[in-house]
Amino acid sequence: MKRAIIIGATSGIGQEVAKILLKEGWKIGIAGRREAALEAFQRTAPNQIEIQALDVTQEDAAEKLHTLIERLGGMELFLLSSGIGFQNMNLREDIELNTVRTNVEGFTRVVDCAFSYFKEKGGGHLAVISSIAGTKGLGVAPAYSATKRFQNTYIDALEQLAYMQKLAIHFTDIRPGFVATDLLNDGKHYPMLMRADKVAYDIVRALKRKKRIAVIDTRYRVLVFFWGMIPRWIWKRMPVKTPGKT
Ligand SMILES: NC(=O)c1ccc[n+]([C@@H]2O[C@H](COP(=O)([O-])OP(=O)(O)OC[C@H]3O[C@@H](n4cnc5c(N)ncnc54)[C@H](OP(=O)(O)O)[C@@H]3O)[C@@H](O)[C@H]2O)c1
């Protein structure tokens, strides 16, 4: 039986991926801050699910992640789905800094912990859900887009580090477009909105293929391709007033 840890499985994309892995017979360890949500999900398949409440922004998160790995009996796949994001054109300091704390500090803490675990065990599969938002700086959501770029670059760096250290660690950076989850539950209209269960299906397929970067879905792959070609002097003038933060 294969074992996966998913951090950020109390809702949204992480929980949908967890459901698919359960159906495929995986044993999973899930984490997030909301203990009640973890317990409710565990009741759906008590023999296959281990839980651990943790907050990635807290210093004890790595220790709690180790506890969860131990309780699961080890892990072959680590998936980080925790993240927050908000539109913040007024640059509210609490929103910007909280986003950095979760998507940069928390991300680094648990991703490094997973990397060290796989290093010690001789290999594994380390996957994160970043976003297409890391492709360009988005004026409507500065911290969100910048922290997602950090995540993209961090995984690039770890991949090189693993190569330098001759480690058999595979990396997958998953970059979805707009997905209908709590993250976008702010009453705004989001174009090209995808269903979380469908996105999860694409994610599991990308994980099985050990894809290095998975932009989801095809429409967003095209969009990101063209975004990448837009020069900075045009980009700054573009009214990318996306009604959302992805
Ligand atoms: N929805 C989109 O359009 C979209 C698009 C591209 C990328 N993404 C990315 O996909 C990932 C999952 O988001 P989602 O759309 O599935 O939204 P979601 O339903 O809000 O899920 C976010 C998950 O992150 C966890 N989380 C948040 N802060 C945490 C913390 N400090 N410590 C531990 N866990 C924390 C939440 O659990 P608790 O609240 O229980 O802690 C929850 O399980 C995020 O990284 C997001 O940036 C989303």
From TrEMBL:
Annotated GO CC locations: membrane
Record's keyword terms, sorted: Oxidoreductase
Coiled coil stretches, renumbered: none
Keyword Oxidoreductase: yes
Record bears the keyword Oxidoreductase: yes
GO MF entries: oxidoreductase activity
Record Pfam families: adh_short
Parts of the chain that traverse the membrane: none
Membership in a protein family: Belongs to the short-chain dehydrogenases/reductases (SDR) family.
Protein name: Short-subunit dehydrogenase
Provenance organism: Bacteroides reticulotermitis
